[in-house]
Amino acid sequence: MKKALLVIVAVLACALLWYRFALRPADAGNTDRVSVRIEPGTSTRGIANLLSEKEVLRSPFAFRLYARLHGADSSLQAGTFILMPGMTPGEIIEALQSGKAQEIAVTIPEGFTVTDIDALLTKKQLSATGAFLRCVQECDLTEFGFLPPGEGLAERGGRVEGYLFPDTYFVATESFSEEAFLKRLLTVFRTKVIDEIGGEIGNSGRTLHEIVTMASLIEEEAITDAERPVIAGILWKRFDDSRGLGVDATVRYILAKPSAVITSGDLNVDSAYNTRKFRGLPPGPIASPGIKSIEAALRPTASAYWYYLHDKQGKIHYAESNEQHNLNRIQYLGSGLPKDLEHLAQ
Length: 346
What we know:
With about 350 residues, this protein is mainly α. The chain has three domains: about 20-100, Dna Ligase, domain 1 (2-Layer Sandwich), CATH 3.30.1490; about 105-200, no CATH class; about 205-345, no CATH class. It has helices at about 1-20, 45-55, 60-70, 90-100, 115-125, 130-140, 180-200, 210-220, 225-240, 250-255, 265, 290-300, 320-335, and strands spanning about 35-40, 80-85, 105, 170, 305-310, 315-320, 340-345. A three-stranded antiparallel beta sheet has the order 6-5-7, sandwiched between helices. Helix 2 (about 45-55) packs antiparallel against helix 3, helix 8 (about 210-220) packs across helix 9 (about 225-240) and helix 9 packs across helix 12. The longest helix is centred in the middle third of the chain and has 25 residues, at about 180-200.
């Protein structure tokens, strides 16, 4: 009898140890977001099996047992939920009970502008048209001391153009706030740029604003990562030599003309952003540069080149002289007229 009791105690102890182990996260510390769609009428067993298939659950049986012991069997909601392998079964059940299902991914690509982000948020049905733009102009951003003063900057992007870090952000649809999202983008910029390479920027001989502005030009001009530091070297060399940068993307930005053909009248627009007409950098960035473009602006590659253009297939061709550049224009673009992908010497 005593022996049988010991066996029962040992079995129960082992079961308890297994249960405690099975209630640990599937992958502790893993914050990767996993989208899980639970259809109406799905049983607890079905939910447990689905979560196991999605690799956010260590043990379907332990999950079902936990749900039953805590009276959660009948309170798990249907919907699309964003879960993580680092969550415990208790945290997963709490999320499924809340019914607050919708958290969606918002991807800000490299090269996006403030107006692009406003349009994206509208498309995602997170924000009304223009609401993000109004926040850019009106929300209190005094906590972000790295932002430039607003004088001379294009109204369309204000002080934040170029400083909204491109990345994928997960947001809750029910509690979305333009101000919170704007500050989140700026906070990530501070983390990724100021905190990580701010010291190098401080020692570069350039200001943060100059680096970010140049990086935005590189983002618009370069097609491949390999081109970025070479183009950066050319543009910085032209800048330091007081030559015009001649970047068509600056004209497109100030005219809000992202893809239509640029006319000779466009190239003569009287704006400090027009690097075809005025020397030096534009007053501010023209897009959100990715980290590769920021690094290129910070660590340019020196070369003998002064000019570059992309042919119709997107391949870049460099030149050391204006004569060679003009020959490249004729050979690769078929004429001497300005082209969208061409960097023309001034």
